[in-house]
Write a structure and sequence with these properties.
The chain has 349 residues and is mostly helical. 62% of the residues lie in helices and 6% in strands.
């Protein structure tokens, strides 16, 4: 199986080159379409671990500033640092990266950030000023630097462990295919991420940033999306229990899982207080967001003031397209990490 490799990262696949020239080269690597097909056929097996990873990361994002947009800008800027190291073929470990006293950004292009994040330029300007006021970034001459406070704000210790759990399960599923090879334990995966942190987390941000931007664009803001997502996770948990007890059949593909969840009506929903506890968003804000979701016909409420997803939500086609889009990108991320572990020159003793 083969696919083109970005020339900026081609050196880590140096031993796979067939000819000296790098022009129009292909390398023997994992194929994301094949990975997607296999994971789709086992759609229900990794969803719980994925939700835990996603929810943990997003809750940490919100708790950092109590404002998703500020954190999204911060993550974008951190990713520019990761990209700078990658462009220079430099890869720092988890410890090396977070022990640095200063990290240079070079410059901030507000228009570019606005376009990438689909957030108005003036909002981006306010968020950048906020990061400066918080002494997270500062100017030195013509360059901009991160203060070492970034180590406390954006250090993903818990998310890293949850990612290893998720990737362990996906590797167990993929290892049943002859083209994948052996599976990896969560300890091996976390050790690899620790050793080659900046490139692994760069690919995580490449997944997460567009993921959050898509949801922000659809729901209007990420707080509303997180409230909706908390309802969805509650509903999936109920669905998953019924699958395990054989009350309902196990979905066969990602599309099948999506349809099953839409049609599934749980005995109980989730109330505003529980959503607030899960999402870490204040209850008053949660209630406002719930009113909006009800008005937009994206959720419904029962007599016990519990919320559930609407079986046929408004803009159902957009929901489906976004969901399937996310599964493709998730498969791409999984493919990249295992490519690095299996086919690159990066090794962990």
């Amino acid at each position: 199986m083969s696919k083109p490799i970005d020339l900026k990262t081609v050196k880590i696949y140096e031993h796979l080159k067939k000819k000296p020239s790098l022009e129009n080269k292909s390398f023997k690597t994992l194929n994301s379409e094949s990975v997607y097909d296999v994971l789709s056929q086992h759609s229900n097996e990794t969803v719980t671990l994925w939700f835990k990873l996603q929810q943990s990361w997003c809750n940490n994002a919100y708790n950092t500033f109590k404002d998703y947009d500020s954190y999204l800008v911060l993550v974008y800027l951190v990713n520019t640092v990761f990209q700078k190291y990658s462009d220079r073929f430099q890869y720092l470990s988890y410890i090396e990266f977070y022990e640095k006293n200063e990290l240079v950004i070079e410059k901030i292009n507000l228009i570019e950030i606005s376009k990438e994040l689909n957030i108005p330029k003036e909002t981006i300007r306010r968020k950048v000023n906020f990061l400066q006021n918080q002494n997270i970034i500062f100017r030195k001459g013509k360059s901009i630097y991160f203060n070492n406070i970034i180590s406390k704000l954006q250090r993903p210790a818990n998310s890293k462990k949850m990612m290893a759990n998720f990737l362990e399960k996906t590797s167990q599923i993929l290892s049943k295919e002859s083209w994948f090879g052996r599976s990896y334990s969560k300890e091996e995966i976390e050790k690899f991420i620790d050793e080659y942190f900046t490139i692994c987390w760069q690919h995580w941000f490449r997944l997460q940033i567009p993921f959050l931007v898509r949801h922000r664009s659809f729901f209007g803001d990420l707080e509303t999306w997180n409230v909706w997502g908390s309802i969805g996770i509650s509903q999936f948990t109920d669905f998953s229990k019924q699958v395990k007890s054989r009350v309902i059949e196990d979905p066969r593909t990602y599309a099948d899982l999506y349809l099953h969840l839409l049609r599934h009506t749980p005995k109980n929903g989730i109330n505003a207080s529980s959503i607030s506890e899960i999402s870490t968003i204040p209850r008053a804000t949660v209630i406002r967001k719930l009113k909006y979701l009800l008005k937009q016909k994206l959720v419904m409420k029962n007599k016990k003031l519990e919320y559930m997803l609407l079986p046929s939500p408004k803009n159902i086609k957009s929901f489906e397209e976004n969901y399937m889009h996310n599964q493709k990108h998730k498969a791409g991320f999984v493919t990249t990490i295992f490519d690095l572990m299996k086919n690159s020159s990066f090794k962990v003793e």
